């Protein structure tokens, strides 16, 4: 059976959801979407960045991810509304429920994006493009916000298509349309072509997606390794990457954090990882669990997302063990683009059974386990901040990172992809 996918993506999700709630539920008369406005956290703490912007704000040159101070400088009259993560989770759920009425399988990719399997629905719903328009209209009239829908024969192309002109549009990008609709675009428009990859491609004379598609796959592998092969496949419309694959039911413990400033050096990044790992491992220990797999996710300043995981020699809940494994992944994964958000996730969580001693680290493990136990004890009696690793003293990173808002744990970050080559 031919595959058919919709990729449904909410337009300026946080801003639209806040605006719709204000008008529809609270009966307000100002639609944030019609004035220069942004959703942003407090200007005092690390959430002080633009999370979403209205169309009129975009016309002032305001960009997602820049600081609220920068945004205010561009537009002194700017309205800054705080994020309401509980509301966003509700809106996201309502959207997924609606989509679930028309698709036999929904793969929610992030809080405001989902892939809908639509194969075999032609007899039921008719022309897939007309039907996508109908769903878009239903979302608009019943939920009060707009979406873009990309229609294609694979997920990657559907996602690409939903990113074409916005808002409130349906676009197709079937395989046969690739030369016309995708190849003329700059190579940076391709997913996971970050700054480092873009620089390398440009020095090789590759400027458009078409240039990349026409390049030699072996050459791409030589310059960009596995990543080079993925993006070459993307450029040719082949969805071979693990990024869009669905995770098996994830029972992992994880945490992510938006960092106060762009992280551009590995030392700071490792501190963020340590801070996140501390929290994740404390939760595992508190629940009497261990994780057999740890992963890192990185979102850069351009909101490009990358993640990878690796299997641990044996399941653990020891902060330092987990931290070391996470750092190894980080070194592999980071392409030097300034980091805005990092996550540490675990999976293959099992009950705290006997640690499989590795001959060489037996002593160390026992020491670390006792240390963690002692620290957990102190924190439970005197509070989380009663003891911290010296590396966090005097810095501006929290020593137990993440857990800032529960929405982040319930879909605010993209799921960790399954990595078949691991
Ligand atoms: Mg969106």
TrEMBL record:
Top-level taxon of the source organism: Bacteria
Key words, A-Z: DNA damage, DNA-directed DNA polymerase, Mutator protein, Nucleotidyltransferase, Transferase
Pfam family, one: IMS_C
Coiled-coil segments on the chain, per record: none
Start and end residues of each UmuC domain: 5-194
SUPFAM superfamilies found in the cross-reference section: DNA/RNA polymerases, Lesion bypass DNA polymerase (Y-family), little finger domain
InterPro entries in UniProt: DNA/RNA_pol_sf (IPR043502), DNA_pol_Y-fam_lit_finger_sf (IPR036775), DNA_pol_Y-fam_little_finger (IPR017961), DNA_polymerase-Y (IPR050116), DNApol_IV (IPR022880), Rev_trsase/Diguanyl_cyclase (IPR043128), UmuC (IPR001126)
Similarity comment text for this entry: Belongs to the DNA polymerase type-Y family.
The protein's name: DNA polymerase IV
């Amino acid at each position: 059976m031919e595959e058919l996918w919709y990729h449904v993506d909410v337009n300026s999700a946080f801003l639209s959801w806040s605006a719709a709630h204000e008008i529809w539920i609270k009966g307000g008369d100002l639609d944030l979407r019609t004035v220069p406005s942004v959703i942003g956290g407090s200007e005092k703490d690390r959430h002080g960045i633009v999370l979403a912007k209205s169309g009129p704000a975009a016309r002032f040159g305001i960009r997602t991810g820049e600081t609220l101070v920068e945004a205010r400088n561009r537009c002194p009259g700017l309205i800054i509304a705080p994020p309401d993560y509980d509301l966003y989770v509700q809106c996201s759920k309502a959207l997924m429920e609606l989509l679930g009425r028309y698709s036999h399988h929904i793969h929610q990719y992030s809080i405001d994006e989902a892939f809908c399997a639509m194969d075999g629905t032609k007899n039921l719903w008719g022309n897939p493009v007309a039907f996508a328009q109908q769903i878009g209209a239903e979302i608009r009239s019943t939920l009060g916000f707009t979406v873009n829908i990309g229609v294609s024969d694979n997920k990657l192309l559907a996602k690409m298509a939903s990113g074409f002109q916005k808002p409130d549009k349906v676009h197709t990008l079937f395989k046969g349309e690739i030369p016309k609709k995708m190849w003329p675009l700059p190579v940076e428009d391709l997913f996971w072509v970050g700054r480092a990859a873009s620089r390398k491609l440009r020095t090789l004379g590759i400027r458009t997606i078409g240039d990349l598609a026409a390049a030699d796959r072996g050459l791409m592998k030589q310059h960009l390794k596995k990543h080079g092969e993925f993006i070459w496949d993307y450029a040719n419309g082949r969805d071979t990457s693990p990024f869009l694959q669905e995770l098996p039911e994830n029972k992992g413990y994880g945490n992510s954090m938006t960092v106060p400033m762009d992280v551009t050096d590995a030392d700071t990044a490792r501190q963020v990882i340590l801070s996140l790992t501390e929290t994740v491992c404390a939760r595992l220990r508190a629940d009497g669990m261990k994780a057999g797999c740890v992963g890192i996710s990185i979102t850069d300043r351009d909101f490009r997302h990358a993640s990878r995981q690796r299997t641990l020699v044996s399941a653990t809940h020891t902060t330092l063990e987990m931290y070391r494994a996470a750092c190894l992944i980080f070194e592999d994964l980071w392409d030097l683009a300034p980091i805005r958000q990092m996550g540490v996730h675990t999976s293959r969580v099992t009950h705290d059974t006997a640690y499989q001693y590795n001959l060489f680290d037996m002593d160390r493990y026992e020491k670390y386990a006792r240390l963690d136990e002692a620290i957990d004890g102190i924190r439970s009696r005197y509070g989380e901040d009663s003891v911290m690793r010296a590396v966090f003293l005097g810095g501006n990173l929290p020593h137990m990172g993440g857990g800032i808002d529960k929405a982040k744990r319930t879909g605010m970050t993209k799921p960790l992809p399954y990595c078949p080559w691991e």
